[in-house]
Design brief:
With about 290 residues, the chain is α/β, with parallel strands linked by helices. The protein folds into two domains: about 200 residues, Metal-dependent hydrolases (TIM Barrel, Alpha-Beta Barrel); about 60 residues, DNA polymerase, domain 1. The chain has eleven helices and nine strands. It is globular. Helix 1 packs parallel to helix 2 and helix 6 packs across helix 7. Helix 1 links the parallel strand 1 and strand 2. The protein starts with 6 loop residues before the first strand and ends in an 11-residue tail after the last helix. Bound molecules: adenosine monophosphate (AMP) and manganese (II) ion (MN) (3 copies). One manganese (II) ion binds next to loops.
Length: about 290
Amino acid sequence: MPTYLNADLHCHSVVSDGTLTPEALAVRAKANGVELWALTDHDEIGGQQRAAAAALALDLAYLTGVEISVSFAGKTVHIVGLGFDAQDATLKAGLIATRGGRGQRAMEMSDQLARVGITDAYQGALKFVGNPELISRTHFARFLVENGTCRDTNEVFRKYLTDGKPGFVEHRWAALKEAVSWITQAGGIAVIAHPARYGFSANEEYALFSEFKTHGGRGVEVVTGSHSAAECLRYADIAREFGLAASRGSDFHSPEESRTDLGTLPLLSADLTPVWEMVHEHIQAPAPH
Ligand code: AMP
Ligand code: MN
Ligand code: MN
Ligand code: MN
């Protein structure tokens, strides 16, 4: 399993906060030259069968995927799982529990937004929701663009939906240890998503990587749509230092909103161990013909 594979192991469908169906994402991945694909919806694996079936019909190799929300050191950290058994009962129960608080959180977000004059945000966000169990900040962001409050979703996050801003609601997600164990006991590999995004101090980041390894985590996203070129180099070094496998994924959500399209990132550096080597026996490959 070479590092030069055009693997894209991070993206979102309408099953979480993406705007395309799993089938449309498979077509787009294939058209963009992706050779190994994973759909990684937030806290939800309801799209896995559709994604795998669509990929295989297009001759595209597939790994199961998910992106689990975790609370760590007062911030939200995302842990990607790859190559697990999507029927695993413990993983499914963990994801149901993780999704569980989203409805209440959304109503609290809506109440807070009402206090700064933005009314009916809950109903407004719901119009953009593809999966009623998975209302996210992204859906609120789309509503605030639609109603003219902001020009784009980035502006909404900056002004309303991040820590300290009027629509932000502190939330308790899964524990790091739980998320890693749900993935690994289901036969998958746990991967720290887009580490540069968290704004951790050096000490906090060291704690994240150390604890992640202690719990059985084995990979880190090195090349992602969320990293600058310098950050890709930095996390390649961290992967070597911590003995972690490296992942690559666009984090594509939408043709209108996402800067990085499926399959368009630089390849992993050849001396890194790619995550797909650790779960190669779980790759769903098209039948030879
Ligand atoms: P939630 O899981 O409801 O907290 O929503 C998190 C999602 O919001 C992320 O997965 C991104 O899709 C989106 N998001 C977070 N921060 C930003 C940002 N600064 N700009 C645009 N989208 C963001
Ligand atoms: Mn998202
Ligand atoms: Mn993420
Ligand atoms: Mn993501």
